[in-house]
Every structure is written in structure tokens, then in C-alpha cells.
Amino acid sequence: MFKWHGPACQTGNVAYKKPAEMGYGIWRKYWPADRAVDGSIDTIMNHGHCSWVQNAGPLSHSWKVDLRAFYDVETMLLYSTKSGYYYTLAPINVKTSRHEFDAYKECAKYDDKIKPASWITVNCKVSVVRYIIIQRKSQSRTYWTMQICEVVVIGHIVACK
After folding, report:
1. For a surface tag, which of 36, 126, 130, 137 has the fewest beta carbons within 10 Å of its beta carbon?
2. Are 113 and 90 in contact (CB under 8 A)?
3. What pLDDT shows up at residue 108?
4. Residue ranges of E strands in 43-144
């Protein structure tokens, strides 16, 4: 489904099966970060294709993918879970970096509610990036969780130009 090529060297989901990790959370053993880049857009948590970061307090939640090469990113699609709650994915900030230990720059923000079992387009057009972080930070107990069922990154490898 995510394997295709566009006229400007774009490829399908450049995050597909790439190494992913997430911040500390109480559910990461059962719903690890790599589930959000497994190619499945199944939005039912118990089917095992979603990632779930949940902290026991108002800490930063983060999910990161290493694209393993430099890409020019055109856009991203994020799939939310069918948990029935509007707050399982948004509000978020999307940040990118060329190198793992460089400062991450914000490329997009999404503050609106996301309907359960749906997807959003995140307009994150950046050049020459390798790392993408989806992050949420809140003092509200309502937002102590972040569930991501799939992250689709549309772009092209820098060497393609």
C-alpha cells in the first residue's frame, strides 16, 4: 500500500519498517514504537499495530523514527487509534533533525482534535532530514497519553535529485 513512486522521486512511506523509539511509558512493552511504522493502518489497539506512550505524570511524550538516510520530506500522515477518545494523538509538535544529537527544529504543529480511527495530514515540508520526532507536552492529565497507529512520511531520498 505504501510502495509507490511519484514524478519528483517521491517514494511511498519512507518511514516504513525504519527503527523507531519512544520516551519512557508504562505501555511501551505491549505497544512499542515500531508498531507505528509496520505498514498497517489498523486502528484497533488490541490488534497490535499501534504504539502507545503513556506516562504516569505530566512529562513530555515523544515518538521518534530514524529514516536511516537523508530525505526531503513533503508531508506526513498520522493515523489515530479507534479508542473513542479525541485526545489520544493531538495536540502535537513535529520536529526534525539531520543528526541524532543536533537540535530538533519544529516543522509542524497540530492543535485540533483528531477523530478516533482517522488520519490527519501534517504539513511538514523540510529538506535533508534523517530524524523525525512527534512530541506532546501537557500539564493536563487528559493528555498524559499518545497513541499512534501509523506514521506515513512522504518524501524522497536526497541522492535522487
Report:
1. 137
2. yes
3. 92
4. 51-54, 61-79, 92-97, 105-110, 119-122, 126-136
Going by C-alpha positions, the residue among 17, 89, 13, 80 that lies closest to residue 45 is 80
Give the separation between CA 90 and CA 111, rounded to whole angstroms. Answer: 6
* Every domain of the chain and the residues it spans: 11-160
Q: Strand, helix or coil at 113?
A: coil
Grid cell digits, residue 153: 512520511
Query: Residues for the chain: how many in total?
Result: 161
Q: What is the model's pLDDT at position 81? A: 82
CATH superfamily for 11-160 is Galactose-binding domain-like (2.60.120.260)
Q: What is the pLDDT of residues 80-120, one digit of tens each?
A: 887 755 556 777 889 999 998 888 999 998 887 777 778 88
